[in-house]
Amino acid sequence: MEREQIEAIIESLLFIAGEPVSFRRMCEIIAEAPKAEVQDALDELIKKYETPDRGLTIAEVAGGWQLQTSPDNALWVGRLLQARPIRLSRPSLETLAMVAYKQPVTKAEIDDIRGVDSGGVLKTLLDYGFIRIAGRKDVPGKPLIYGTDRRFMEFFRMKSLSELPTLREMEEIQAEQLGAAQNELPLDGGAALAEAAENPAGEAADGESAPAAEPEAEAGVKTGVADGSDPRPEPEPEAELEPGEDPGAEFDPEGNRE
Asked: What's the CA gap between 172 and 169, in Å, rounded?
């Protein structure tokens, strides 16, 4: 196969997928071409999309490659979609950070750290697709355990969990995507995340309980749109394990389900 043809196929796959496509999956689909040729074609296609006159980019996120709108054009894309961007409250960001750094983690463990019930916040994060139910912990009562899902890495632009941002960085990424005029969260205080990651005893850094969960703004996550907006209806909450998921299966923090 000619490299130009492979490039065109990869471009079509990224356009239609709506989510990151791993290199392994590309090679499985383009079985007629050697892996080295698929890699060369992918590299060349990425270079073509890096030019400033393109409205799309190819970003490496969540263990794969995804076709996204250019962040520079987020204002005009938002006007077309007429969708509301995601606004996560401080309790939601804190809970999301705890899940990310301590996964797999149970609701009781999160409640111990925050000092308040986190059921409502966890439901919101499940609705947004930032976290998922990863199984059950092998202790009396078999409580559900939570971990981050692929959309978490897409939204915060991570290739893998080794690039986990601090709470401050999470707020700044959200503020950048919302736009400074729309942002309602202060860009301060990474101490809560540091304490959550470093203090397994669950003591708050200042000896006080964390604030109660706030109502979440209505929004969703759009895979492939750089401003984090979503014109689609919000997903239904996940109340139980996914069909066919083994409660005792090995936990995959990257959210891969191949």
From this structure: 5
